[in-house]
User: Which sequence fits this backbone?
């Protein structure tokens, strides 16, 4: 039995590298992580707006806050958010 193979019928195994499958799954996990971070950033920016803490955050946080606010408008009612989540995701993927 080979450790790096994919089992198929009745424990007979093809000797196939699992690296490609692992790379594809890792890519999806990383994309999902960026999406979660984008949602969290939108939430934090909305909380800063709601609490009126714009003048109490650091200069770097204020810069990110302003950049996110350019992408996501202030919202007070339910709205479709996935276009904004995708744009914020693209924004954070480009941050150095």
Assistant:
């Amino acid at each position: 039995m080979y450790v790096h193979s994919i089992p198929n019928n009745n424990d007979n195994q093809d000797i196939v590298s699992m690296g490609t499958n692992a790379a594809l799954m890792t890519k999806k996990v990383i994309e999902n992580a960026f999406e979660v971070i984008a949602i969290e950033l939108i939430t934090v920016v909305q909380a800063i707006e709601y609490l009126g803490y714009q003048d109490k955050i650091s200069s770097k946080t204020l810069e990110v806050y302003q950049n996110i606010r350019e992408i996501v408008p202030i919202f007070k009612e339910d709205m479709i958010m996935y276009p904004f989540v995708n744009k914020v995701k693209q924004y954070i993927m480009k941050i150095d």
Notes: The radius of gyration is 21 Å. Residues 75 and 94 are 25 Å apart (CA to CA).
